[in-house]
């Protein structure tokens, strides 16, 4: 059975600093971990601020909870020459026991080799056996271009340490292009359809056909990695609170598991 995680950003109303411009989380994550486990998620993809922006007691409760942190989701900048923030992110990822760390390089096309070298240093700071997972986010990273991403990865490290994430909202053609460029490095999927038929995110039942097409393609391409339910219906609405969002996530998880190989 495929491993499916809940991205804790999904249940954080201040995910985009729309509630509090400081970006501080409004959700005490540890209070929801039992409910996430009861919904039968296999673990979490931990939004960095749910760990780095809280006190030691809360961070300890997250680490000590039986529900595993499988992926640590960092926003550490790769445009910053100093590596202090990236090193702190690597340290926090190590504290959580995550086996993967989501990251994005910057968007300056002439900095490709510098990004690769900073990524190589970041990987060296991660615990042995922990991989860096490029989200390759469109609009904010030069790695959205598959050929550029492949060049960065090849310079930065081997496929066991430098890996990549794809998204269900990507077109089928773009997914194929990414697999052609660096398919051996693609080990994780973010499930979200932000802005598809809805100003926020639709219930997965409303995009079942699109989701099934992407799952089938990934299976044909040989993908056998892990999945994160990243965003759910209810964000940016009156239901943008942990309880209703988690209820929707549980419904989406049932459908997703029905479709996964």
Q: What would you say this structure looks like, in words?
A:
By secondary structure, the chain is of the alpha/beta class. The protein has one domain (8-259): Alpha-Beta Barrel (TIM Barrel), CATH 3.20.20. The chain is built from nine helices and eight strands. It has helices spanning 33-38, 49-52, 56-64, 84-96, 112-125, 146-156, 172-182, 208-220, 242-259; strands at 4-7, 43-47, 69-73, 100-103, 131-134, 162-167, 186-191, 226-229. It has an eight-stranded parallel β-barrel with strand order 1-2-3-4-5-6-7-8, surrounded by four helices. Strand 3 (69-73), helix 4 (84-96) and strand 4 form a beta-alpha-beta unit. Helix 5 crosses helix 6 (146-156). It starts with a strand and ends with a helix.
Q: What's the order of the H and E elements?
A: EHEHHEHEHEHEHEHEH
Task: Provide the CATH topology.
Answer: TIM Barrel
Strand order of the largest sheet: 1-2-3-4-5-6-7-8
Largest sheet: 8 strands, parallel, barrel
Supply the number of structural domains. Answer: 1
Unreliable spans? none
The CATH superfamily name is Divalent-metal-dependent TIM barrel enzymes
Q: Roughly what fraction of the amino acids lie in strands?
A: 5-15%
In short:
The chain is α/β, with parallel strands linked by helices and 261 residues long.
